[in-house]
Each structure stands twice: as structure tokens, then as C-alpha cells.
Amino acid sequence: MADDPILAAGCVLWRRSPAGSGLEICLVHRPKYDDWSHPKGKLKRGEAPLAGALREVAEETGHGAVPGAVLPTLRYEVAGRPKEVRYWAAEAAGGAFTPNGEVDRVLWLSPGAARDRLTQPRDRDLVDALLDALHVS
After folding, report:
1. Residue 89 falls within a domain, yes or no?
2. Which of 16, 57, 59, 86 could potentially form a cystine with 49 if both were Cys, beta carbons 3.0 to 4.6 Å apart?
3. What does DSSP say about strands 6-16 and 40-42: parallel, antiparallel, or unpaired?
4. CB 91 within 8 Å of CB 66
5. pLDDT tens track of the chain, all 137 residues?
6. What CATH code is carried by the domain that includes residue 106?
7. Which of 68, 108, 58 is nearest to 88 (CA)?
8. Overall domain count for the chain
9. Residue 104 lies in a domain
10. Per-residue b or e along 4-41, where b marks 16 or more CB atoms closer than 10 Å to that residue's CB
11. 72 near 125, Cβ under 8 Å?
12. How many Cα atoms within 13 Å fall on the side-chain side of residue 120?
């Protein structure tokens, strides 16, 4: 159905900065699109959105994640078809990145640097939503 939205989910993955105070946000680089984004992907048939979001984090970043607050859902069009991406805040829970066919690099950045690096302006609002959810200014 051309009018049925593409359903996807992802996380704004964060960790406490190993260098001291503050937090860092994980961004993924997708060579197919040459963009920087939050880890996300299409849901499998019958998959719950949160389960899909955590699966995508693991597949794209190599990290486990502890889900937290629900973040805004992003809605936009892809090739003329609506897409709906549900997001959660998620704290990284160990793991290690290995480049793969979908993602060739990850970066852990301060919130300001992550906001600047994100390719799509709509993804920048999720950084602010994460900081609000974590009560960080």
C-alpha cells in the first residue's frame, strides 16, 4: 500500500563521557547515504517498535542499550511514501563497534557536536529531547 507508512524505530544512544563530566551521543555513518544519523531502521513484520529500536542499535553500533524515555516520533516522506520513526533515549550498555555493510563508522560526541554533525535537521531536535528527558542543560 503506497499510503501505508514505512514503520521504523531507533534510539538516541548515549553514555557518560569517559573523559569526565557530561555525556556523549553516538552517531552512525551510513556510506550508502553518506550521512550521519541516530541508529535506526525499519521494523520487521510483527516486531514491536522498542524491540526493533534496540535491535537496530545492536546491529549498527555493536552496543547493548538500556531504554529510557520515549522521544518524539519523526514523520517524513521517503520517495513519496510516508515514514514514521519512533525513538527512545537509550543508555549504552557495553559492546564494541565493528564496521558492517550498513554502518562504516560511529562517533561519540558531545551533544553540541552531535547536533552539528547530524545530516538531517529533523534529527537535531532529538538531541534536545534527550537532554530534556535526562534533565541535562
Report:
1. yes
2. 86
3. antiparallel
4. yes
5. 567 899 999 999 999 988 877 999 999 999 999 999 999 999 999 999 999 999 999 999 999 999 999 999 999 999 899 999 999 999 999 999 999 999 999 999 999 999 999 999 999 999 999 999 999 86
6. 3.90.79.10
7. 68
8. 1
9. yes
10. eeebbbbbbbbbeeeeeeebbbbbbbbeeeeebbbbbb
11. yes
12. 17
Q: Does 37 reside within a domain?
A: yes
- Residue 105: give the domain boundaries: 6-133
Q: Give domain status of residue 1, yes or no.
A: no
How many Å apart are CA 72 and CA 83, to the nearest integer? Answer: 14
State the cell numbers at 104: 562504516
In contact, 82 and 75? CB cutoff 8 Å: yes
Contact 114, 38 (CB under 8 A): no
Q: Cell 569517559 appears where?
A: 18
